Amino acid sequence: MSLVPLYGLLAEFDNPTDLLLAARKAHDEGYRKMDGYSPFPVEGLAEAIGFERDRMPLVVLVGGLLGCVGGYLMQWWISADSYPLNVGGRPYHSWPAFFVVTFEVTVLCAGLSALFGMLGLNGLPMPYHPLFHVPRFEFASRDRFFLCIEASDPRFDVLETRRFLEGLGGHGISEVPY
Questions:
Q1: How far is CA 138 from CA 11, 12, 66, 82, 129, in A?
Q2: Where in the chain is the domain with CATH 3.30.70?
Q3: How far is CA 35 from CA 83, 160, 161, 172, in A?
Q4: Whose CA is closest to 120, among 59, 66, 67, 61?
Q5: Pairwise CA distance, residues 118 & 137, whole Å
Q6: Per-residue pLDDT, 2
Q7: Which numeric CATH code is attached to 6-53+129-177?
Q8: pLDDT tens across 121-153, in order?
């Protein structure tokens, strides 16, 4: 065993069914900090590794609401407070006239919050990841399937986790250094 801090253990599987079964068994065994890697989406893998909640809808909702309120207040401030201009006898605070711009600013802020929220929640941009140290990991984008159990998991023990992954049918189990 090396003195380099360990990110986790990576097990290789031949097909998506084996990966899915291994992820379910690992979750049932009590492992919570793990991730699965495959060249294409595997139906049910997110649920198998314990991914339950997605915070993106909340991020987009908050961004849209802030855009809505900000767009409306901006127009109110300009039309009624900062530069009141009587055009055709309409009131200074004419909410029907504010509707189009308010809607557009809502959509713009929701879209931008979706973009930046996705980048932030995914930890991007990340030009480096510890899994890039494992030479066989390049096959994750071709024809192999990987399950990585992270060392930060409370249940993680190098020898016990290695035996567990071998018992699941994982081969080529690699230690992933930081």
A1: 13, 11, 42, 59, 12
A2: 6-53+129-177
A3: 56, 18, 14, 17
A4: 59
A5: 24
A6: 57
A7: 3.30.70
A8: 988 888 888 999 899 999 888 889 999 999 999
